[in-house]
Write a structure and sequence with these properties.
mainly alpha; two-stranded antiparallel ribbon; 2 strands
Length: 492
C-alpha cells in the first residue's frame, strides 16, 4: 500500500512538514525535523528510481480520477533521475546546514528558513513528478517564491536586491510559461502532458507554435540560459551558503528538465528540432554561454561569483547536449545535470566552510588556506578538477558524451569547442588553487581552524560521489541513456 503511494508521499511529506516548522520554532528542533523529512524524501526517491528501472513508468492518479481527467503524477526514467538529484542534494544540504545556517541566519528567523526550504523542496519535487502542465506551473511558483525568500535571508544587504532581481526575472519567466500552457489548452482542451502530445494537430497550428515560443523563452529565463542569466550571479553570490549550494545544484537543473519535457514529450522531436529551427538557435547560444560566462568567471575576485558564472557556462553544456536531439546528445545533457549537481553542490559547500572561518570568499583572503583548511581545500580542488573534466571525475563523463555526440553528427568544430571551453575552466579554478596553496597567508592574519565535521562530511559526500561516478558511471549513464530513449520516443 505504501509503495503504491510513494509518488504522492514524495510531495505531500515536505509540504505538510513546512508549516510544522513554524509551530516548532526552536532552531535545533526545527533543523532536526527538517533533516528527518529530507532524508525520508531521499529514501522515497531511491525506491521510486528502483521501481521505475525495474518495472517501467509509474502513473499515479490523484484522487483516483483517471488521467487525463484528473491530475496525474507520472514518473519515467527522466523524472526518476531528476527527483533523485533534488532529494539527494536536499538531504545532504541539511547535514551541512547544521553549522552553516546558525552562523549566517539570525536565530529568530531560522524556523522560517527551514519552512521556506521545505516548501522549495516540495516545489522542485512536484515539478519533476507531475504529469499535468498547469500543476507544473503551480509547483514552479511554490519553489520560486520560497527561493526568493531564502536568497533574501543572506547576511549582506545586497541579498535583498539579488532576491528582488530574481523575483522580477522569475515572474517574467513564469508568466511566459503560464501563457504557453494556456495556449496549449486552447488548442487541445487538455493539460495532461502525455495527452497533450497526442492531441496537438499536425501540422502544428500557429497557436501551438506561439505557445512553443513562450514556453521556450520562459523556461530559458528560469534555467538562466545566456543571455537570460543576469539574475543568477547576484542570487548565488549573496544568498546564504546553504541556499547557494542547494539552489545551484537543483533549481536550474529542474528548469532544464522542464525544457526537456516540453520539447520532447509535449511537442516531440520532429516539431521542436525539424519543423522549427530550435537546434540551430540553442547550439550557438550554448556555445556562447560556455565561452562568455567562463571568460567572465576568470576575472572575478569573489569565488562565489566566479562559480556562479561557471554555472551559466555549465548550463550551456547541458543545453548543447539537448540541441543535438540524439540519444548520445541527450544522454550527455541529462548525465551532466546529475554530475554538475554533485560538483557545484560540493564546491559551494566548500566555500560555505571557508566563509564560516574567514567571513569572506574573496580570492585574496584565501591565500595560504590550503595549509590551514586542508580537507576543505582538497574538496575544492577535487570539485574543480571535475568542473574542468579531468579523467576519473564525473565531469569527464559529461564532456566525453558531449564530444561523442558532436562527432556522431559530424560536428568536429563543436567537439573542439567543448574541449576549449574546458580549458577556460582550468584558468579560473587555478586562480583559487594558486591563492590557497602557493601564496602565503596575509601578514597579521589570524590562524583559522578546519571546518566543522558536519560541514566537511556533507561536502565530501558530494565530492566523493562525484569521484565515484567518474570511475563507475553505470548507474548515471545507464539511467540517462534510458531517459533519452524515452524522451525521443525510442522506448515505450
Amino acid at each position: 500500500m505504501i509503495t503504491e503511494n510513494l509518488p504522492i508521499l514524495l510531495v505531500v511529506i515536505p509540504l505538510l512538514a513546512a508549516p510544522l516548522c513554524v509551530l516548532l520554532r526552536q532552531p535545533t528542533l526545527v533543523w532536526g525535523f527538517a533533516t528527518l523529512v529530507s532524508w525520508m524524501v531521499f529514501a522515497i526517491s531511491i525506491q521510486l528510481l528502483i521501481l521505475v528501472l525495474q518495472d517501467g513508468t509509474i502513473s499515479y492518479a490523484i484522487g483516483d480520477w483517471a488521467p487525463p481527467w484528473g491530475i496525474e503524477y507520472r514518473i519515467d526514467p527522466a523524472s526518476a533521475f531528476m527527483q533523485l538529484v533534488v532529494a539527494g542534494i536536499g538531504a545532504v544540504s541539511m547535514v551541512f546546514a547544521a553549522k552553516s545556517v546558525p552562523h549566517e541566519i539570525p536565530e529568530r528567523r531560522i524556523y522560517l528558513f527551514y519552512t521556506m526550504y521545505l516548501l522549495c523542496l516540495t516545489g522542485l519535487l512536484g515539478i519533476v513528478v507531475t504529469g499535468d502542465a498547469f500543476n507544473l506551473f503551480v509547483f514552479l511558483e511554490i519553489s520560486s517564491l520560497s527561493s526568493y525568500v531564502l536568497i533574501s535571508l543572506g547576511h549582506d544587504r545586497r541579498a535583498l536586491t539579488a532576491a528582488f532581481q530574481y523575483l522580477i526575472m522569475g515572474t517574467l519567466g513564469a508568466t511566459f510559461i503560464l501563457i504557453g500552457v494556456g495556449l496549449l489548452y486552447m488548442v487541445t482542451g487538455t493539460l495532461n502532458i502525455a495527452d497533450l502530445s497526442g492531441r496537438l494537430p499536425e501540422p502544428a497550428p500557429r497557436t501551438s507554435l506561439v505557445a512553443f515560443a513562450f514556453l521556450t523563452v520562459g523556461t530559458s529565463l528560469k534555467l538562466a540560459l545566456f543571455p537570460l542569466h543576469l539574475w543568477l550571479p547576484n542570487a548565488y553570490t549573496f544568498a546564504p551558503s546553504m541556499v547557494t549550494a542547494f539552489l545551484a545544484a537543483t533549481a536550474t537543473k529542474v528548469s532544464v528538465y522542464i525544457l526537456l519535457r516540453f520539447f520532447f514529450t509535449v511537442f516531440g522531436v520532429d516539431v521542436a528540432f525539424f519543423d522549427l529551427p530550435v537546434g540551430d538557435i540553442l547550439l550557438p547560444l550554448a556555445i556562447v554561454a560556455v565561452f562568455a560566462a567562463s571568460t567572465v568567471a576568470i576575472f572575478q575576485e569573489n569565488v562565489k561569483r566566479l562559480l556562479a558564472y561557471s554555472s551559466v557556462a555549465q548550463i550551456g553544456y547541458m543545453i548543447l547536449g539537448i540541441s543535438f536531439a540524439t540519444v548520445n546528445g541527450l544522454t550527455a545533457g541529462i548525465v551532466h545535470i546529475f554530475n554538475h549537481a554533485l560538483i557545484k553542490g560540493g564546491l559551494f559547500m566548500a566555500l560555505g566552510s571557508v566563509f564560516l572561518r574567514l567571513g569572506t570568499t574573496q580570492i585574496d583572503a584565501m591565500a595560504g588556506l590550503g595549509r590551514q583548511m586542508p580537507l576543505t581545500m582538497a574538496a575544492f580542488v577535487a570539485g574543480g578538477l571535475s568542473l574542468v573534466g579531468i579523467p576519473l571525475t564525473s565531469g569527464f563523463i559529461s564532456k566525453w558524451y558531449l564530444v561523442t555526440g558532436a562527432l556522431e553528427k559530424g560536428w568536429w568544430l563543436v567537439a573542439i569547442l567543448v574541449v576549449l571551453g574546458s580549458l577556460l575552466a582550468v584558468i579560473y579554478v587555478w586562480r583559487v588553487i594558486e591563492a590557497a596553496y602557493f601564496r602565503p597567508a596575509p601578514a597579521g592574519a589570524a590562524q583559522v581552524k578546519e571546518a566543522p565535521l558536519a560541514m566537511l562530511a556533507a561536502t565530501w559526500v558530494l565530492i566523493g560521489a562525484n569521484l565515484y561516478f567518474g570511475i563507475d558511471s553505470t548507474l548515471t549513464v545507464g539511467t540517462a541513456s534510458r531517459a533519452a530513449e524515452v524522451l525521443l520516443g525510442l522506448e515505450i
